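Title: Prediction job returns without error message
Component: structure pipeline
Severity: low
Priority: P3
Assignee: unassigned

Description:
Job completed but the reporter wants confirmation the result is attached to the right record. Sequence as submitted:
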Amino acid sequence: MSKSAIARLKAQFGDKILSTSDFRGDDSCYVAPSDWAAVATFLRDDDQLKMNMFTDLTAVDYPEREPDEPRFELVLMVRSLEKNHRVMVKTKVADGATPATLVGVWAGANWAEREVFDMFGIRFKDHPDLRRILMYDEFEGYPLRKDYPIDRVQPIVEYRDSNEMTKQAPFGIEEGQPFARIDWEARLGADKPTQVSPAIAQQQGETRTLSDSAAALVMEAKLKAKREAAAAEQGAKE
């Protein structure tokens, strides 16, 4: 990281650099969302900084901050290959706010901002192609929000044919199933020896788990014999 980069930003933007930190050598600063694009442009264009390498742009969700503060933080990481220094810039963004896109500053921000939108639902103003990049179009919600329900069931999407690409066959019945859509109760029972969710089965005492499978029992017997032999050998020495 570079303290000189932070000093340069403070000299240029003054009070618009809201706070700084050098925690464990990571020099960073906070700016307001309204200054987000201006600070990024300065980082790239200033002769003393020359941050010509976009490293990453991501977000962090702090829902517990609401309503006193915005719940999201955008984190920008850039580096100067010429000056050999780097810096992080952060801004706090409220749910529903639309921070400026940085695609015009660093082209590499394009996919990073799409990922932030896909995972957190943060929309970037004037982004040239803001659409999901990891999840499919029908996916409901934003999976990296901390209030996204772990047992949420997504709608079933029918298989789509395409003449433009070669696609794999649809999922089989035991493949690609969301955890919450599987009827675990129907799969449990003495007449259904198929291995199922170990945690649920063990809790209900209705099926064997990996720990008492035939292979595990054989392994345990071998370990027991080995321990007994070692104990006997130690006893003989004493």
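Comment from assignee: result matches the submitted record. The mean pLDDT is 82.
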